Structure formats: C-alpha cells, structure tokens
Amino acid sequence: MRRSLFISGTILLLFLSSIQLNAQRKMRLMTLNEATELARNRSIMGLIVKQQFRVSYLTYKDFRRAYLPQLIASGTLPDYQRSIQLYMNQDGTKSYVPQQNINYLGNLQLNQEIGITGGNISLNSGLQRTDNLISPTSTSYLSTPINIQYNQPIFRGNAYRWDRKIQPMLYDIAKRKYLESIEDINITTTNYFFAVLEAQVQKKIAETNYKNYDTLYKITQGRFQLGKIPQNQLLLYELSLLKAKLATEDAKFALNDALYVLRSFLRLQESDSLVLLPPVDIHFFIINPEKAIDEALTNTSPAEDFKRKLISADMTVGMAKMTGRFDANLTGILGYNQTGPTVPAAYKGSSNLEEVTLTLNLPILDWGVARGKIKIAEYQRDIAHNEVEQGLIDFRQGIYRNVMKFNMQQNQLQIAAKADTVAKKSYEITQDRYMIGKISDFQELYTAQTEADNSQNAFFTALQSYWQQYYNMRKTTLFDFENKTLLQFNLKDLTP
Fold first, then answer.
1. CA atoms of 444 and 440, how far apart (whole Å)
2. 315 C-beta neighbours (distance < 10 Å), count
3. Tens digit of each residue's pLDDT (9 = 90 or more) over 364-401
4. Highest CATH level, class, for 3-60+164-308+383-493
C-alpha cells in the first residue's frame, strides 16, 4: 500500500510561493526521478559507465571470436638471399656454393583453435616462386595445393580450459558492475538534487525570517516609543533584522552555486528557472536481512568476484604444475606438394606430403625452480581462499548493516516530519502571542524560530537519507525490494 508522507503546510506553501515568485520567468519543475533519468542518460558519469561496459562487452566478444575459424592470407614479397652455403654433391662430397636468389611466397590458411585439448588444426594452401640469379638463371615453383596440419601439446597447461570459466565470469561481473554504477549515479544525483532542494528551503526560510523580523522590528519600535520595552530589546530586534538580511543574501548565493553544480552534472544548457520538487511520495517497506544477503550473494559483482578469485587461484596452481616440467609436442602434416618450372607444372602430378614430429622436453636439473613456482602458487591460492573467506564475512555484515539502516528510515522520516509540523506550529503560536503583546521576551521568540528552522532542515536531511539508503540497497543487492524484481538492463541499448 502506498502511503504519501505529508509535510507541513508551510513547506508546501514554500514551494508554491517559489513558483509564484518566478512566474514571470520560464520555469522548469523537476522531480528526483526526472533528475536521475537525466543523469543516467546525459551526465559524464553516465556516459563513462556505458563506455566502460562496452569495453568489457567487446573484450568478451573477442575472447569468443578467438576460438572461431580464422582465415589468414600471408606472403613474402620478396625474400632476397645472397650467401655461400654448404652443398652435398651427388658423389657424396661437400662443397661451398655461392647462392643468389629471390623467393616469393603466398599462403592461405584456415586455422582453428581446439580449446578442449589446447591444440591447433589448420588447412593450408600455398605457392612459392624461386628465381636463381646466378648463371645459368632459372625459375622454379613449389606448390602446396592443400595440406592439413595438426599441432598438439601433450603435457602443457591448457589456458583455454580456465579461460572458458573465467572470461564469462568477467563479463558477468561487468554487467553487474554496470547496474551498480547506475545506482551510484542515482545516489550522486540525489546528493546534488538535495543540495539544491535544501538551498531552496534555506533561501525561503531566510526570506520569510527577514519579512517576519522586519514586521517585528516595526512593532517593537512602536512599543519602544510607548515605553513598553527597553532600548536593548529594540536593538536586539534590529540586530536580528540585519542578520536576517545578510542570511538572505548568503542563501541566494548558495542556491545559485548549488544550481550551477546540478546543471553541470546533468549537462543542462537552458537558462530556465529550475525549481526542484521534494520527493515525498514514498512507498515504505521493510526488508528482510536474510533475503537481502541471499540476493546480494546471488546478484552482485563482489559476490561473483569472490568466485572468480578462487578459480583464478586454482588456475595459477594448475598452470604452475604444468610449466617447467616434462613436456611433449606432437605435430602432424598431411597433404600434397610439387615443383616445376612453371605454375601449371607445379600443380601437375602432386606428390604426397607427410610429416610427423614428436618433440620432447625433459628438464634434468633446474635447481628446484619448477617446484618453487608450484609452492608459490599454492601459497597464493591459500591467501586467496583466506581473503575470500574474510571478504564474505565482511560482505554479509555490510549488507546486514545497510538493511538495518534502511529499515530505520521510515520512523526517522515520520518523526522528522512530525517534529517539523510541531515546531512550525509552536513558532506560529509564539509569534502570534508576541504580536498581541502577551509575551515580550525576545529570547523566547528567537528560540521558537530557531527550532522551526532546525526542524525543517532536519526533515530534509532525513528525506535525503531515505533516498540515499533506498538507492544504496538497490546497489548492494541489485534487487528492487519495492517491486520485488531483479534490476536489469537492455543489452541492445548499450552494445553497438
């Protein structure tokens, strides 16, 4: 059930009178919801948040594309060589022969990473031309119509096996951080909004107080002339009138300053008179702490980052165990190639191309380097587990404290509203009694006026605190407890 929080008639009249005073200017009324929407779409903070998410989105897309088939064209145009090389003669003897040639090479490769095994398979086709520049000059071609090459590390760590777990988590964390950043924008907007709102209130209070003191000073002058009050009391009212006038000037400056900050944040260019409306239509609700903790552990970026840290720590240990140890690599090539003095001849009657290579690497003496890296990785994993364990404890406690603070807001706001109404009524009664001469104590009237001003300020402080806590609960749980739904966004609105 929606319950509107009614503020005192004085506050309502304050904003109505502000509207009337500015009626001669083109005026723009703005609610908190309108301000937060503008901030999300137009502020620099909102634009940066969107760009940061797009970077994360494209990074994840690049990771997915890296394991799709890649078609690559390469070439060497040209490769000039002039050297003396060792040559094996037909009779078995060796001789040094000068060489001078130009090579041209073109190759087309269809490459596919095999993430599950960590291997690589490719389909290749190429043509090479060699021009012998030493007399007698000649030209020859080497064709590779097609060959299939497979390369498989056998005992090496498979980074893809870990990346396919971590990269989707990083992308998921980026989505959650985007939603949390949106709530940060709402909180920042709330602070700027209430800075202007409170400045509006202070300005109206100052103007009202100045008018009241002006009236009271004139009444006091009349009583002084009749000899009903001493001169020092008249001087106190005159001093209060001067202070009220100075407060009015200060309040005008503070309001203009707060408006400038808000306009700059929202990137508002128009020169319309901006009047903010207090967000007093509030739907009070109570949040269950356990429900909030469950939602936070399920939905938020810190909770997901705890899981990522544990997997990353396990990855570091796993890769350390597979690095610097016994290693083997198997490479196989199957296809066709042929040579000839012309391109057609190089593609005629191709010969079989077969190659199998098994490369072994066995460190015999490394002075314990590999074992030391494993130990370091294991210690770092233990540290990560301890940090995550402590982080979860602090995270749960933080959510619990936020819930308790939010659940207190209803009573605090209602008490502040009631106190504001009572203080205003008390001041009105005291002022009326002074007007008709039933009291002449300046201090009594001044105290009543101070209490009224302080109560009104306390009300707006409580109202601001409510909305800060409201958006903070959305941020720390990514759950809308008012409508009982998860916070979400449309990916199409952010991605190119």
1. 8
2. 19
3. 887 888 889 899 999 999 999 999 999 999 999 999 99
4. mainly alpha
